[in-house]
Amino acid sequence: MEKEQFEECCRLNRENLYKSEEGYLHNLWLSKAKGDLAGMARAYDNLGRTYLRYDNDKAEGMFNKALDINRKLNNKEGMARNYDGLGFLFSDKGEYDKAEDMYVSEMKIYKEFDDEHGLQMVYMNLGDTYRCKREFNKAEENLKKSLAINKKMEKMGKRNLLPYCYLKLGEIYEEQNNKEKAREYLQRAATLFKKNGAIKIAKRIQSKIDEPQKK
Questions:
Q1: Is the pTM for the entire model greater than 0.85?
Q2: Tens of pLDDT along 102-140?
Q3: DSSP string, 37-79
Q4: Domain total of the chain
Q5: Are residues 209 and 124 in the same domain?
Q6: Which of 27, 82, 131, 167 lies deepest, with the highest CB count within 10 Å?
């Protein structure tokens, strides 16, 4: 039964992807017919995000088309979104230098507009990228920038990514064999995930914390 449920879930996911692709292609066709460049850029970006799930080459092509249009329109919000998609794509391919370039370009736009919502996410993505490059000081620096913004958002009662900041910092300290700091940040992450109702994630982190003590 479990196998049948898994196969059915995969089938539904494929159907949803095809429906998304058809919808965005239709939007692209309508935007082209009206000469709506902004609409075309949005459609290309949405197609890029759809193709990210199964075809990186097609996704890259869509993001670059969207980026070209947004540059012509000087639509910096759209450009930031395109850079974000390309950053994720290059990171997924293990091309971390290219991912870094995309995220830095995205960050500059968010800084220009003092967009803290965008900054807290791009700092986190840069932290992940530097971690993959084994540049732990830069990874920590960017994650702590994201942490500071997320703490501010929490105080304001806004949705935030605070538990993820603690988790990612804990993992960096873990990789550096800084056991005390790793435990401190992982424990903070586990506590917040549990508080937010993400019980499975909290248990998984808690198991990681408790494991060294059992040895």
A1: yes
A2: 999 999 999 999 999 999 999 999 999 999 999 999 999
A3: HHHHHHHHHHHHHHHTTT-HHHHHHHHHHHHHHHHHHT-HHHH
A4: 2
A5: yes
A6: 82
